[in-house]
Every structure is written in structure tokens, then in C-alpha cells.
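Re: export button greyed out
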Amino acid sequence: MSKFSIRKSLFTWDKGVVLFLVISILIGSFGSQYFATASNLSFVIQSIAEIAIIATAMAFLIISGEIDLSVASMMALTSASIGYAFQAGVPFEASILIGLLVGLLAGIFNGVLVTVFGLPSLAVTIATLALYRGLCWVLLENKPVNQLPTDWVALGNENIPNTFLPWATIPLVLLAGVAWFVLHTTKLGRWVFVIGTNPVAAKFSGIPVNRVKLGLFAYSGLMSAVAGVIYTLRFASASPDGGAGYELSVIAAVLFGGVAIAGGVGTMWGVLAAVISLGVIRSALQLVGFSANALLVVSGGLLLISVILPRVTEFVRSQRSRASIQSNNKEKVNT
Amino acid sequence: MNKKVVKRVSAVLFASALAFGLAGCAPAAEETPTAEGTTAAASLKIAIVPKAINIGYFTAWNEGAQKACAELNAICDYIGPNEITGAAQVEFINQVIQQQYDILVISAADQNAIVPSLQKARDAGIIIVTSDADVAAESKDSRVVSILPSEESRIGTAQVDWMAEAIDSTGSVAIISPANAANQTAWINAMGPYLTSQYPEMSWVGGSLEKAVFYANDPTESSEAFAAILAQYPDVAGIISPTTVGVLAAAVEKKAKRAAVKVTGLGLPSEMASYIEDGTIEKIGLWNPLDLGYVAVYAGVAALNGPFDGAVGSSFPAGDKTYTVVEGNIAYLGDPYTFTKENIAEFKVIY
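Workaround output, generated via the alternate export path:
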């Protein structure tokens, strides 16, 4: 028995993700002379920053047994709000604050619908996915806003001086650090796991389930908004169709990182390792010469494996433990 | 100093890759592209980046580019995303920067979002030529020159002329177009005043150009837009779709519903042939994407070798023609080409 528990702790899914990251780096480094370079590292970090930041909040939500499909729309709504305000003559700094506030409010609105009205988050956020995207189109119509202040655009595209890290690294590390700290070391973090494992028990043990969930949706809105600011600066424009489809990339990364879709299980570093490794394997395969079509097949395949493999290991494990229990019982009978 | 660190890190990674014995797994890398036994000119590396791969139009565009590359003894790689978004295209511009291409020929998937990346590519010393779709006019410094089919306004107004021909210059007209696409927006803006001034008996459904435009980004949405137009405006006389996706969907729907509404727009001859042959549609138009790709590669090589620099008034040769750069640092190919029952058989096999 003790042998099994050692194995269990050795081969967890999130460790597999880290191993996968190492393999991805090796493929890239060996397959292309252009992979392991400072500029490519900068590109990879930029390409994952928005998804990683939203994923930190999505991890909380999915662990708590909820989901938020409207994240990409909230991100775009933030971007559209910034563009709209800036175009209307509001200083850019204030426009960014407005954008963050809009994202936060959008998240709170999701949370109120789920907690106050008791609606399922899947349905609510499918609806607000469309609603918030529609608002983007109402705000900007078909006219993307460009010509944003060059200093801010530089912030979205250049590296921190004397490093090969893009500026987006700072909010990314900071927010990921906070998310890790809260999820794994605080009472709130433990509550999130309890809520996801057994919401009824959570309620009876005095956890303010609805307040926590409302907070998580607000958090999701705010993180989407931060991602929206980064996205706006990176692409030097605000357009109503920005970030379309990002919600799927975020959820894919969170699940690939070992968070159980049913809730109650997951680690923040597993999620972050997943976002990073998905970005790295994309870059590596691209530089090795894979086409966009091949990349799509690979990312779909990886996701499928991430869903299937834990189930298979679970099954094998349960078969083994059943076998060992049976043999134990037999031994007992024999003695 | 940091570069040194990175080099060391990559060296360690490289060594560990060897140590892991992954040698057998490495694909035939693209690091030795000059093994043709030709002169140094053959080392010219050109990236051909479409809005998205898997689209017939861009396959033809690439064919034209490849023809020029063969003539110029350059190596052209066709790489790009499989969805038309600026964000997706940026990943491939990054790849072009990483792999140190000499020239980037690109059809801008988003007129703003790819600009910062193009600037990075430009700063890395890559010659950038936009072809087929340009960046926003304010950002024209991010590329050397743009190769475009015809004056924007004429692409729009020509479609109004084709529609007028189809409906005897009488009746109301709607438009099915992708949202947020630089090309289509410009063409549609040109259609508005032209229709009003040239064809007094024609009008936009709903009374204004804004109301007449139905946005659709893919075949499904285009079919829905077609149905929505017929439902909202039963007396609609014609539908213009300035996109290969929209006009095909409109043709399919028109045939399926046996609708009387006339359809025209910009369509790919190979996709539209059966509908032109059976009379569903009388006339569509398009420029030659082969020429767009072909001329763009020549422009890029001319800019790399100099003295051509994309300045207004400067010119470069491509095939047996010479192209001169006009206002906005743009070189135009000519007028849109039209396809009817008479010539569709000839063109459907090309693109």
C-alpha cells in the first residue's frame, strides 16, 4: 500500500505538465537554432501573458465548481471601453482605469446572476459572452481605434530595459504570485476547494459560499480586464472583435494544468506550467516548421490526452487498489 | 551581457538535448536552405504570409509569389495562421523575425493589430511589402510599399456597376460583408455615394448604407445574413458581397431558395464557376491574386537590392511591366477583372 501512495505522489498530472514543458523546450532547442533565443522568449511570454492572467482567475472558478465563458468578451469589452473613452477625449491613463472598472463590473454582473439569482454559471456566461461582445460592437461599431499614445504602445511591445523580458512579465508574475498565495496558503483558498468538492457541506460548515463565488466572478472580470489592457497595448489598437476565442484557450490551459472540470481539484502552478508549456510547444513546433494546421491538430490532441490520461491512471489505480484490498481480504480469510 | 546568459542557457539546453539522445527525433531542419549549389543570391529568404492559409484565394496569391521567387532564384516559404485575426497573424510575423527572413510579403489580417509586430520586423532589418491588404494609412511607415489591386474606390464602385447591369439600374440593394475588415470597409464606403449619384433609381435597403450592410464573418453567418435580408426586405433587388466567402454563400442560398434577388460581388472563379455556368449569377469580379503575389515579391527584392525604396514616384519592374508608386506608398495593379459565362471556364482552373 505504501508503495502505491509513493507512486501517487510521484506521478501527479501537474508534474507531467512540467515534464512536458521540458520536452517542449528540448524539441524547440534541438529542432531550430532560432528557438532558444532571448527574442523568442520575449515573444512567447507576450503571446501567453493575457491567457495566463485570465487563467489564474479561471482556475479559482473551476476549482470552486463554476466556470466563466465570458472572459474573452470581458477582455474585449475592456479594450473597446478604453478605445471608446480615449476617442471621446478622455486621457489615456483614465481610459485604462475606465476599462478596468468596466471589466470588474462585467464580472460582478456575472457573479450576481449566479449567486443572487441562483442561475448556472455555464448558461449565464454563455449569455454574457454574447452580450459583452455585442456591447463591444455597439461601442466601436465597425471602427477600431488606433493611434494610441506611443509610450503606452511601447509598454505593450518592448522589453524591460536591459532584459529580454517584455513589460507584461511584471503584472503576470505579480498576479500569478498572488493567485498562488491565495489559493494554496490562505483560508479563502481552502474555502474554494471545499466549495468545489462539496458546496452543501461548505455551506453547513459556515463558509459564505455565495460571497466567495461573487468575489471569484468579480476577480475573473478584473483579470480579464487586466488582460484586456495588455492586449490593447500589445496590438496598439482597440477593436470590437479582439481576443475572439480566447476563452477556449484559457479553459484548455486550465484543464491541461490538471484542474478537474468537476471542481475541487487543481494547483496554481500546474495551471501556469500548462499555459507556459502550451505557448512554448506552439513556438517550438512553429519554428521547427509545423504549419498552422498541424499546430491545431497537436493542440487538440494534447487537450484530449490531458482529459483522457488522468482518467486512465485513475482507473488503473482504482483497479490496483481494489485488487490489493481483495488480496488483503483473502489474506485475512486465510489467517 | 544578457545575450551572453541566454546564449549559455541555450547552449546548455542544446547540449542536454543531445545528451537525451533526441537526435533521431529532430526533423530535417530548415537551417541549410542554400544547398542548391547556386550563387549567394539563392540565399534570399522570403516569407509569404497570407491572412490565413486554407483559402483558395491565398493559395493562388502564393502561386504568383512562388513564380516570382523561381525567376529570382529566392526561397519562398508560405506560412500563416488558419484563422483571420491580427493576433493569430502576429505569431507568424514573430516567426519571420525569429527565422531572419530577408523579405516579408504579407496580406494584413488586421490593419492595426499587426503594426507593432511589423515595426519590430522592420527594425530587425526585414523588408516588408504588404500585398492584397494593407495596414492602416497612418501606419504606412511600417512597410516599404503596398501592392494593391485597383484604387480602393474603384473596387467598390465597379461592384455597383455590375449590380446596376444585373437589375437594370432599378431597385434596392443590400451588402453582405465581413466585419472589421479593412478592405471591405473601404470599398463599401466608396459604394455609398457612387450608387446615390450614378443610379437615381437604385437605393440601399433600409434607406441608408449603414442599414444595408449585413455583417458576416464565415459561410454560416453569410447564409444567415442572406436569409435576414430577404426576411427584412422582401422587395430587395440585389445583394452585393465584396468577399469570396459571402458571395459564395449568397449564391448557394439563392440557388437553394430559388430567390429572385440578383447577386454579385467579389468571387473566386473556381468556387463560383458552377453558379455562373447555371445562370444563378451573371457576373462577378476579382483581380488576379497571382499578379498580387508575383508583383509583391518583385517589389520586395527591388527594395532589398535598391535603389527602389517605395517612395512616391519611384518604380520597379515585375515581369514585362513596370509599376510606379503613388500617393500612400502604394503600387496598383489595374482594374478589377470580371468573370461571366463566356470566360469562367478558362479562369476556374487557375484559381
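Residues 17-319 of chain A form a domain with the ABC transporter involved in vitamin B12 uptake, BtuC fold (CATH 1.10.3470). The button fix ships in the next patch.
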